[in-house]
Amino acid sequence: MTPMATQKEIARRAGVSVSVVSAVLNGTTHTRMSDETRARIEAAIAEVGYVPNDAARALRRQQAGTIAVVVEKLENPAYKELFHGIYEAAEARGWAVVLGDTVWMRSGSHFLARLLGRGSIDAILLRHDGLIDEEALAHLRARPTPVVLLERQSDPQDPWVAVDDSAAARLATEHLIEFGHTDIAFVGGTAGQPSTARYEGYVAAMNDARLSPREHLFTGFGAESGVRGLTELRSGDVLPTAVVVANVMSAVGLLAAAADAGIDVPRRLSVVGIHDVEIADVVRPSLTTVRLPMRALGVRAVEELSALLSGAPMEPGVIADPPPQVIARSSTAPAPAELTSRSDEL
Amino acid sequence: MTPMATQKEIARRAGVSVSVVSAVLNGTTHTRMSDETRARIEAAIAEVGYVPNDAARALRRQQAGTIAVVVEKLENPAYKELFHGIYEAAEARGWAVVLGDTVWMRSGSHFLARLLGRGSIDAILLRHDGLIDEEALAHLRARPTPVVLLERQSDPQDPWVAVDDSAAARLATEHLIEFGHTDIAFVGGTAGQPSTARYEGYVAAMNDARLSPREHLFTGFGAESGVRGLTELRSGDVLPTAVVVANVMSAVGLLAAAADAGIDVPRRLSVVGIHDVEIADVVRPSLTTVRLPMRALGVRAVEELSALLSGAPMEPGVIADPPPQVIARSSTAPAPAELTSRSDEL
DNA sequence: CTGAAAGCGCTTACAG
DNA sequence: CTGAAAGCGCTTACAG
Predict the structure, then answer these.
(1) Which residue ranges does the record assign to the HTH lacI-type domain (chains A, B) (predicted)?
(2) Between the CA of residue A299 and those of A91, A148, B190, what are the distances in Å?
């Protein structure tokens, strides 16, 4: 096995020109050749253990066959299904997928350079919750590399696809309302998509039920955010009987904080998290969540990218099918009777 | 801004040859030139918004400046720090990092092709727990692309670095022994690294304390594995008073199963998980863990890769500094007195 | 049915 | 101080 064999070497061994070697490798041109020639070439290919040079191929074809997926907080378990969907759809189209975290995209990083440069990445799928710096975003927009955003954009200068965050929060809220809750809070996220869309869904559900929505408590992401969320709720006049948490890890953090504070979930406080992930099923009490079609989001995103690359951009939009779905577990229950009637007490 | 400007276009605008353009871009050759020329070229570069073509560069330089990191179960929270360490060390050496999951590496995938091919990936960091198929591994080994394994190898034909899994499990076990436990089980993982190393550490600690180790319960990974682990433990004659779990998510799953079964953690059963991740602090009872230097592992792995690429391979080995460390939380407590003396009861 | 040649965009000896 | 040229490994019209 010759480590670095090229088509030239194969051509030499098989006594043909590189054109023919390339032809048997790609099957695009020179399709007609004698079986004997083809066999000789295939033997030589196997003999040297040929692997193509992707850089040369990318340069010549003017496309790398690779797309990048960049998300904020790679460790977010909600991305598991998203990645799977993206991977499957990309493979089906002949693309390799590479992943990265938005924190790697800081100005001047080699990672960013690879995204901005041409030749090694054909397109980018980007999901962020507002923590990415504007400079990096501006860099991206200034490049010809297509970028599809995995979140709703009010100003659709960038193509985007998104799950229905608003509907998800609406469902979560309605689930609580059906349980008789009237004082429901909304906690978590930052000012920006997708948190804002979720808050809007919550407000809509509250308004529909003629209930007063509370202010959006921007506590950020992660378990710590849930802990802070409960602290803020307890520092108010009245502790609500239920809370919608913008993010599943925050919801788990809020659950822990409630346990530590001796607040009984779900009897005194019901909790719903957005995004159904494994951990929701594993904490105690188990967490009621809203399942969002993250896998379908990944598939749609790749389709959008594909359309974009072929010059036929699709309508940006929200994934309607499958719709978000409440997964009821043990963290939600009917509102405590004594509180819904009088609405006081800590 | 001309979307696809090349050095040729810049040279034309500045009235120089591409050699000089390349020189100001890279600063390697043609270092002496008139300030006026340099200024004119820099102006042209800014004017067209030049970005290099990475494929052309990679082809010419015969290196891509990108390393791939492939792990099993991307969603494992223990990787968060590992990725961070790898990223920092790689950036410092001028490499971009791309991530992928081992399940993407199945034969014939475009992702695998990109790893196997030359030109776009200079080297690979690979971590797996035995779930990767041998065929993919054989493919990798047959290529000249350097691979560093992020786990201990008994047969060091591949370079490797690893955290001290054995010491971690030993510490976990000793922590329980200090609490007076004598009947301690070991649950989780598969037959293979790093689970085996952890089991060995457990056995060593038990032997040192003249206690009888139990059999390794191979239940796999993830929360489900912990649930199965508890089921198996309960189906035995005697439920141990403590358990070391090979994997932190499995430990959380075991905690949930214990709660559901009405087994009091930590008063009836103490639980320790390997790997300190955020979730350990957020479940209730919070989970005692052993913290492993995953960030240092990432840094060392990149150093090893760097040495390998420069033809001076380092000694493979275990990261001794910082050493593993027990993070005591609420899932471990002194052994129940009535059980350590009589050792029966369910 | 097969080969010679151009060219993707870059870097780097080499010549002047 | 600057330019012309070769060549990295591939694909693809084009010619025969």
Answers:
(1) 5-61
(2) 11, 12, 32
Residue A106 C-alpha from the chain's centroid: 20
Q: Do B256 and A284 touch (CB under 8 A)?
A: yes
Which of these, B201, B203, B191, B174, lies nearest to B270 by C-alpha position? B174
Q: Model confidence at A150, in pLDDT bands (50, 70, 90)?
A: very high
Which residues contact residue B169 at a Cβ distance below 8 angstroms, ignoring those fewer than 6 apart?
B186, B197, B198, B199, B200, B201, B202, B205, B244, B246, B274, B290
Convert the pLDDT of each residue in A92-101 to its tens digit. Answer: 999 999 999 9
CATH number of A63-163+295-318: 3.40.50.2300
A124 CA from C3 C1′ (Å): 40
pLDDT digits (tens, 9 = 90+) for B74-97: 999 999 999 999 999 999 999 999
Cis peptide before A293 (omega within 30 of 0): no
Which chain B residues contact residue A52 at CB under 8 A?
117-118
Q: Which of B6, B7, B118 should one mutate to test binding to chain A, selecting the residue with the greatest count of A CBs within 10 A?
A: B118
Question: CATH classification of A165-292+325-342, choosing from 3.30.70.1070, 2.80.10.50, 3.40.50.2300, 3.40.50.1460?
Answer: 3.40.50.2300
Determine the distance in angstroms separating the CA of B144 from the nearest CA of chain A, rounded to an integer: 6
CB A225 within 8 A of CB A188: yes
As its CATH architecture, domain A7-52 has Orthogonal Bundle (1.10)
Q: What is the spatial distance, in angstroms and rounded to an integer, between the CA atom of B79 and the C1' atom of D13?
A: 49
What is the residue extent of each domain of chain B?
A: 7-52, 62-162+295-318, 165-292+325-342
pLDDT at A340 over 70: no
Q: Within window 121-140 on B, which residues have Cβ closer than 7 Å to strand D?
A: none
Size of interface A-B (CB pairs under 8 A): 191
Could you give the CA distance from residue A262 to residue B194 in angstroms, rounded to a whole number? 39
With residues binned 3-state (H G I as helix, E B as strand, rest as coil), the percentages for chain B, rounded to 5, are 45, 15, 40
- Has domain B62-162+295-318 been given CATH number 3.90.1150.10? no
Domains B62-162+295-318 and B165-292+325-342 share a fold: yes
Bridge partners (DSSP) of residue B273 are B245, B289
Q: Which amino acid is residue A284, in one-letter code?
A: R
Shortest alpha-carbon distance between residue A184 and chain B (Å): 23
